[in-house]
Every structure is written in C-alpha cells, then in structure tokens.
C-alpha cells in the first residue's frame, strides 16, 4: 500500500533518527563505546548509510571535557597546581578523542608543548567494559 520510493524514505528517516539516538548514547557512555562507534562508521557493508553519516561525527567531533576536569586531572597526576606547571595553557583543546584530549601549552621555561590528558575515569570504564565482555586484561 506504500510505494517503494515512500517506503525507502520512511526507512531512511527511521535510520537517521535511530542513528542520532545511538550517537548520543555512545557519547554519554564514552570510552570503548565511542571507539565502537568510530569503527562502525567505517563499515558501510554492515550499517545503512544514515548510521555511517551520523556516526562519522565520532571520528573528529567529540565534545571536549570541561576545563576544570582537565586541570584537575593534570594537577592530580603531576602533583602541582597548573600555575606552577605552565606559563600558558590553551583553554580550547586541539583535539578531543574517546579516551583523551590534547591542549597546547607553554612551560615556565618558554618551551611550547602539547599536553595529552586522559579523560577522568576512563581507566575504570575500559576495565569495566573488558571485565563484562569476558576479556582478560591480565
């Protein structure tokens, strides 16, 4: 009772809506879920095109973590306040990935550096996913 063209349009719209839901959930769940989404975005042989197009956003468009979290992680790991570690620290990351983000900074001695900061809690998320998936990390 529905033409093929209309049926295809309905399926495309449904896939796009569901792909956006999956994208949102993968971003919320973080870590290996984002990695899985990145992988799936390359598999046009497995997923319909709307999923590929939406999940491609995971390749380079992840939202950055809050600066307070980034600074807290750096201070906790290096044992010093940010002002003692860096003369400048760019607020906006150069890139944000599933397990870390990268910021440009200048050390107190004037050397320019790039600081890669692992997302807070990512170790636990990875270990939890590995544990519940049955994979051994030891």
Automatic annotation (TrEMBL):
Q: Which parts of the sequence belong to the ABC1 atypical kinase-like domain? A: 57-126
Q: Which InterPro entries match?
A: ABC1_dom, Kinase-like_dom_sf, Mito_struct-func_regulator
User: Residue span of the signal peptide, if any?
Assistant: none
Which SUPFAM superfamilies did the record assign? Protein kinase-like (PK-like)
Return the GO cellular component terms, semicolon-separated: endoplasmic reticulum; Golgi apparatus
Pfam families registered for this protein in UniProt: ABC1
The lineage's top-level taxon is Eukaryota
PANTHER family for the chain: ABC1 FAMILY PROTEIN (PTHR43173:SF3)
State what protein this is by name: ABC1 atypical kinase-like domain-containing protein
């Amino acid at each position: 009772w529905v033409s093929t063209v209309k049926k295809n349009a309905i399926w495309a719209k449904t896939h796009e809506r569901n792909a956006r839901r999956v994208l949102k959930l993968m971003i919320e769940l973080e870590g290996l879920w984002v990695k899985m989404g990145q992988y799936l975005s390359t598999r046009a042989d497995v997923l319909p095109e709307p999923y590929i197009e939406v999940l491609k956003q995971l390749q380079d468009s992840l939202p950055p973590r809050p600066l307070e979290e980034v600074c807290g992680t750096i201070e906790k790991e290096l044992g010093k306040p940010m002002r003692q570690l860096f003369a400048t620290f760019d607020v906006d990351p150069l890139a944000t990935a599933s397990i870390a983000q990268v910021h440009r900074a200048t050390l107190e001695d004037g050397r320019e550096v790039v600081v890669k900061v692992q997302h807070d809690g990512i170790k636990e998320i990875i270990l939890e996913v590995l544990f519940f998936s049955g994979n051994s990390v030891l």
